[in-house]
Amino acid sequence: MVHAKLSPSAASRWMACTPSAVLEQQFPNTSSVYADEGSHVHALGELLLKEMHGVISKFEADKTMAELLKSQYYSHSNMEFAENYAAFVNEQCVDDFLLFIEQRLEMTQWIQEGFGTADSIVILPSQRKMIFNDYKHGKGVPVYAEHNPQMMIYALGAYHMVGWIYDIDVIEMNIYQPRIDNISSWEIKLIDLIKWADTQLKPKADMAYDGAGEFNPGKACTFCRAKAKCAALANYNLELQRMDFKAPELLTDDELLEVHSRKKLFEDWMAAVEAHIFGEALSGKKWPGLKLVEGRSVRQYSDPVKVAEVLKAKGFTEIYKPETLLALGEMEKKIGKPNFTDIVAPLLVKPPGKPSLVKASDKRPELANIEDDFKIESEDEDI
After folding, report:
1. Fewer Cβ atoms within 10 Å of its own Cβ: the N or the C terminal residue of the chain?
2. CATH code assigned at 74
3. Helix axes 263-282, 253-261, angle to 10 degrees
């Protein structure tokens, strides 16, 4: 997938911290199971809308649906999310509407090389109105439409696409986030949107494209790919160690609140640093004072069916919970330790523990390079 240098989904970040866009280019734009699942539900919603409005034939729809049903991310709940999203958009299709589904948009008038894809756009010419919808599958935090830079940029792209044909006065923006029952709507007059684009968006986008401006650590750092190695963020967080606490023994309430206000960002930064160091270690990098070792592992049945057959042949019958074998500890209590050791133990396996990065002084042996066996994934904000 090709990503825009100044992605609309990251606009809240590069508008707040303009140099971050160029800094991020040094780091891979990885996907994650969360983003992949979100993409799957997007595809379901797209298909349902296209079939509903005759954009594709029934044969094409059935063929595509058959492929989507094979996905590891398919579930009845995800299908329900997609169906409800399609119904939400369909309710907007009134009068002499026009519907655009998964529409690529250009925003180069305001953002150099700017582009993106809109989930759905409904044009209502008789009402001089455009409706822009964005499906969000994430459930970590609610996303709101009001003054949302991503939504406003997409709305600009949509207007740029059809504004020369249709008179548009008002733009409605909707965030559809079903997993946390969040539907957020906001309207803005076109004249105000254009003013924002000319006075705020374009100047910030020009700076971000060139990597100019000052670093501005804060909330926008959450999804930044460079945050593990960003010196500005490190300095911001380490200011806590350098704060001039005037009271000799106890912090004041204001000082406590200042420390507390930085808790989330500090934890996110530390997690990013740890993930970066761990990922580099998995790829073979040697960090002074650290090493990879095998983490804790527990025994498990190598073949539950075979274990059950052997136990039954020996006369043991009370070996099940509903539909499953008893856990190892319960099994040992039920049949007795000698029988467990003689009969079950030979049928157990202990898989390798997950790698763990520890101090070099740890007594466990160091693991060999396991880059091919493990991969690090990161979450994507635009899901």
Report:
1. N
2. 3.90.320
3. 40
Alpha helices in the chain (DSSP H): 11-16, 20-24, 33-52, 58-69, 76-90, 149-162, 190-196, 202-210, 231-242, 253-261, 263-282, 304-313, 328-335, 337-339
In which band, very low, low, confident or very high, does the pLDDT at 374 lie, cut at 50, 70 and 90? very low
Read off the pTM.
0.67
Q: What is the DSSP string of 249-294?
A: SS--HHHHHHHHHTHHHHHHHHHHHHHHHHHHHHTTPPPTTEEEEE
pLDDT at 323: 64
How does pLDDT run across 248-295, given as a tens digit for each residue? 577 778 877 887 888 888 888 888 888 888 878 888 888 888 888 877
Domain identity same for 34 and 108? yes
Q: Is residue 367 in a domain? A: no
Query: Are 266 and 259 contacting, i.e. CB atoms less than 8 angstroms apart?
Result: no
What's the domain count of the chain? 3
What is the model's pLDDT at position 247? 55
197 and 234 both lie in a single domain: no
Whether 116 and 244 share a structural domain: no
CA atoms lying within 13 Å on the CB side of residue 57:
3
Choice among 5-14, 92-101, 186-195, 353-362 with the minimum mean pLDDT:
353-362
Does one domain contain both 83 and 199? Answer: yes
Residue 362 lies in a domain: no
Distance in angstroms (rounded) separating the CA atoms of residues 371 and 283: 5
Residue carrying structure tokens 């991020």: 24
Give the pair of three-digit tokens for residue 46: 């797209």
Q: Are residues 96 and 185 in the same domain?
A: yes
Q: What is the dihedral of CA 161, 152, 196, 215, to 10 degrees?
A: -120
Based on the domain organization, do 102 and 59 belong to the same domain? yes
Q: Write the DSSP string, 315-340.
A: T----EETTEEPPHHHHHHHH-HHHI
Are residues 256 and 171 located together in one domain of the fold?
Answer: no
Look at residue 175 and give its three-state secondary structure: strand
Angle CA 30–101–87, to nearest 5: 105
